[in-house]
Design brief:
69% of the residues lie in helices and 4% in strands. It is mostly helical. The protein has two domains: 36-117 and 171-245, AhpD-like, CATH 1.20.1290; 119-168, no CATH class. Strands 1-2 form a two-stranded antiparallel sheet. A hairpin with a 4-residue loop joins strand 1 (20-24) and strand 2 (29-32). Helix 4 (71-80) runs antiparallel to helix 6 (87-106), helix 7 packs across helix 9 (154-168) and helix 10 (176-190) packs antiparallel against helix 11. The longest helix has 20 residues, at 87-106. The termini are far apart. 31% of the residues are buried.
């Protein structure tokens, strides 16, 4: 007599809390989704490119195109992530993407290429442009004395301002918010860079990703990329959020 009541209550909870989907049904892991399928596609494209899992990257690229990313947006993500995991991974990702596009074309699928990056008309020095873009990214000016790696190796601080935050961040194919999702996906997947992951998770919050979305990000990493990678990312996120209380 009680079983139908329990089932009914569970069913009501299941369908009223929200859309609940497994990250990987075979693992039996369930959680409430706060990231869109499009968001998740970008996470996996970045992660599989970064760790060199080209077989899974093919599937993620297909999903990404099917979920609404343009060819130029996904290409931009793969190019951009070289700044965090190197040219070899990025180039192998691009080569894999070419194969995916050729296969889709052979099947009669017409993918949308989308806009290319707009020409840069800002005539300021690249260092100054990069500095201004970094301010937009983190929401605060960084004009204090150089510390840590920037003091020890000032040339890399110049490279970061002029190349990463000027040459690359000025390209408007992806938003800052989307670039930061790519960034944490790469750093979480290559591991052993927890201070950077924490910093960029904080920037994700500044750029508009929510705490719930970042929690779901760690679950996606855990169940689609690697258990250790996901657990490490969750630990970093927990420490970041605890520090804000």
């Amino acid at each position: 007599m009680h079983i139908p009541i329990v089932f009914s209550a569970f069913s009501f909870l299941f369908f009223t809390v929200g859309v609940i989907n497994p990250v990987n049904a075979s693992e039996g892991t369930w959680f409430q989704e706060t990231l869109t399928e499009k968001d998740k596609s970008l996470i996996l494209v970045a992660s599989y490119t970064a760790n060199g899992n080209l077989k899974k990257l093919k599937s993620a690229l297909n999903d990404g195109l099917d979920n609404g990313w343009t060819v130029n947006e996904l290409k931009e993500a793969i190019v951009y992530l070289y700044t965090y995991c190197g040219f070899p991974r990025s180039i192998r990702g691009l080569q894999t993407f070419i194969t995916v596009l050729d296969d889709r074309k052979a099947k009669g699928i017409k993918d949308i290429w989308g806009p290319k990056a707009s020409p840069i008309k800002d005539e300021r020095a690249k260092y100054d442009r990069g500095k201004a873009n970094l301010y937009k990214l983190v929401g605060t000016k960084l004009d204090g004395p150089k510390k840590g790696y920037a003091q020890f190796s000032p040339e890399i601080e110049v490279f970061l301002k002029e190349h990463l935050f000027a040459d690359i961040f000025e390209r408007d194919v992806l938003t800052y918010k989307e670039r930061e999702l790519v960034t944490i996906s790469v750093i979480a997947s290559i591991q052993k860079a927890e201070p950077m992951l924490r910093s960029h998770m904080n920037i994700c919050l500044i750029q508009g990703w929510t705490e719930a979305q970042l929690h779901d990000f760690t679950k996606i990493i855990k169940h689609r990329v690697g258990k250790q990678e996901g657990n490490d990312a969750q630990t970093v996120l927990n420490e970041l959020l605890q520090s804000k209380k």
